[in-house]
Amino acid sequence: MREEFNTELFAKGLKNRQEVLGAEHVQKSLDAADDFTADMQKLVTEWCWGELWGRPGLDRRTRSIINLSMLAALNRPHEIRLHVRGALNNGLTQDDIKEIFLQVAIYCGVPAALDGMKVAAEVIAEEKAKNAKAGAK
Amino acid sequence: MREEFNTELFAKGLKNRQEVLGAEHVQKSLDAADDFTADMQKLVTEWCWGELWGRPGLDRRTRSIINLSMLAALNRPHEIRLHVRGALNNGLTQDDIKEIFLQVAIYCGVPAALDGMKVAAEVIAEEKAKNAKAGAK
Amino acid sequence: MREEFNTELFAKGLKNRQEVLGAEHVQKSLDAADDFTADMQKLVTEWCWGELWGRPGLDRRTRSIINLSMLAALNRPHEIRLHVRGALNNGLTQDDIKEIFLQVAIYCGVPAALDGMKVAAEVIAEEKAKNAKAGAK
Amino acid sequence: MREEFNTELFAKGLKNRQEVLGAEHVQKSLDAADDFTADMQKLVTEWCWGELWGRPGLDRRTRSIINLSMLAALNRPHEIRLHVRGALNNGLTQDDIKEIFLQVAIYCGVPAALDGMKVAAEVIAEEKAKNAKAGAK
Amino acid sequence: MREEFNTELFAKGLKNRQEVLGAEHVQKSLDAADDFTADMQKLVTEWCWGELWGRPGLDRRTRSIINLSMLAALNRPHEIRLHVRGALNNGLTQDDIKEIFLQVAIYCGVPAALDGMKVAAEVIAEEKAKNAKAGAK
Amino acid sequence: MREEFNTELFAKGLKNRQEVLGAEHVQKSLDAADDFTADMQKLVTEWCWGELWGRPGLDRRTRSIINLSMLAALNRPHEIRLHVRGALNNGLTQDDIKEIFLQVAIYCGVPAALDGMKVAAEVIAEEKAKNAKAGAK
């Protein structure tokens, strides 16, 4: 791991980030870190995942709800993809996620809801396939 | 009340809207309804408050969390004002609301967080003053 | 068709949606409806296509103009694609659509206009190819 | 008038701008033009009002419909105020404007619609008061 | 000053924030910090002003240019007001700021440019009045 | 070249556009111009590249900084791609671009920064590969 990642806050953030988004995805981002992207990886891991997600004020399930709501409003499909997976890891059900996007439809408009739900449906299908495969073993 | 408001879904929505946003605010909106705004009041009360807020899938506290997150991202201070009050009515504490805006700072940017928090702080101060006055009686 | 789709408002919306967006596209969305997406399909078909597009206040051509304008501003390419096709079905010419995106350039900025026009150009080329093929038979 | 305003395109744009937004409002903007704002006034008058609004491809009524749709989506209340007045000047009725904002509610979300309609209602009330006063003379 | 503000990064950020936005404005924000807003003040001062503005990679003048560009695009008039003042403190001239907003007009659309320029013009007028008063002493 | 492109302002804009974005990309856009897209190409080349980029008030390096900042905030990946290449042509280093996106993270939120940086990293890798290939000859 790059030297500048060697801080206490980074370690704390890394653990939160891995637990929410999955170790594999996070490893891929860190492995890809080069002189152009490393400072961003550091900032995101320390501030977003160390500081914010490390705060005890709200549980992870609630933080996932907040994120999906904001990301749908912000029109950020890549992040919606990551955070639908995170939401499932944090205990949201398929029905919870459905309700969030119905509320998005009313407050952010139907296009935001349809776009977000399409991404969410893909992630949910992938997770089901993965679980089915794991169950078949 | 205007004739076109006389539907079952409107009545259901009206009850939800009053319980969340306060009867006084809702009455003001409905009293102001004229030929230009009545159809919008009907749509919002039926669709948003009857259909969506009437769904059992998420509790009101969670719906308030979703709304504050979306409204901060959408840059809608008038609606943030209404829904901070709604959030307090639905059981969110001052600390819960603070945490939401800290998460807004990271995902929507610092300006969205500072603008939203300013409005929220005003509502919280008003509610404290109102409660202090009520307590003094 | 799923049982919850069996309402009068859904039937009305379905007809409008099919006439504007094309029966094939709509059928695909409804066929894909599962426990995750069916409530959204219901909401969109009833409220957006039954209630709103069912209103006599504006003709369909005008509603298409409004939609393209909003969708370009909202940065929603998937929906622009659908509604450029809808606009052609509702009688807008290629020149009308061109003018809308020129106005988008001034009010929403050049990137919104270029992104939107690129999607529109693809749809227009597809429609021309389809018509040429149909004409050749 | 400032020397740099002395172009053919500016004169053409100025005429369009005055006819749509009202001579009084435009005069105020131009009178206020100083070394900081004059280049912007020139760009807007020439580009937006000379080039775009001078195009024959769409009538003014349609351009007003496009503008209100975009401005509601873009969350720009100052411009909504100007262009509701412009829309009335260009022949849109109160009912047309109402329909636009109902469509905004579905596609841009309820907060965009309520915020935009509030501004529109104020302009419509002002115009009615002005007309009543004029009629009383 | 509140105890949680007592970190090295906060001190570094506070210095940067005061030098850019003015000591008076910053003091007002910190004095107003209470249990609701203090964590946000800490996050903003440490993260935004300590971490980011403390980076040597770009000079302050350039960071002001970036901020005005983003804030105009983000539709955040309160922050534009603060950062036009900051831009003047960081050495941007009135003409530099004018050019930024002309570029905003083309890329973010005319409404973003007019709204932003209006706020900027007010700040510039205030600063001129302040300087004239100071010069008259 | 199409007849309507035959203006002095178009020629001036074309030169700027080619120098910033690369002659190959611009040629592709112009070659693709047809009755649907030609007026947009004309508007963009004349106003954006002739008028704005032709202004002496800011150097091209600064205009690239402004553009990347706005485009990240506006969520326009296609344009970010073009203008990262333009920024490199205008003398920004990889480190300058990195700093811009770190500032985007704070003010527009982490998703805007990660999305933008991903596109920028791809362009930077392509340019390095191209230069390596050119150097190997």
The string of secondary-structure elements of chain A, in order, is HHHHHHH
- Just name the CATH architecture of the largest domain in chain A: Up-down Bundle
Reported for the largest beta sheet of chain A, the result is: none
Q: Please state roughly what percent of the residues of chain A sit in beta strands, choosing from under 5%, 5-15%, 15-25%, 25-35%, 35-45% or over 45%.
A: under 5%
Q: How many separate helices of chain A?
A: 7
Give the CATH H-level superfamily of the largest domain in chain A. AhpD-like
Q: What structural category arises from helix and sheet content of chain A?
A: mainly alpha
Give the beta-strand count of chain A.
0
User: How many structural units, i.e. domains of chain A?
Assistant: 2
Pfam families (chains A, B, C, D, E, F): CMD
GO molecular function, one term (chains A, B, C, D, E, F): peroxiredoxin activity
Protein name (chains A, B, C, D, E, F): 4-carboxymuconolactone decarboxylase
Domain Carboxymuconolactone decarboxylase-like (chains A, B, C, D, E, F): 39-122
